[in-house]
Amino acid sequence: MGMNSRFFPAFFSTFSTVLSVFVLASLWVGTAVSNGELEKEAAHFYQLPTGTALQVILFDRIHTAENMPGDSITAAVSQNIYLGRDLILSKNARLIGRISRLESPIQGRNAILKVEFTGLKTEDDGHFSMAAEVDTDKPGNIFGGELTPGTKVRKVTHRVYGIGQYNQARLSGPRAMGHHLEFLPGEIWTVILTTPLRLTQQ
Question: Is there a single domain that holds both residue 87 and residue 113?
Answer without folding.
Answer: yes
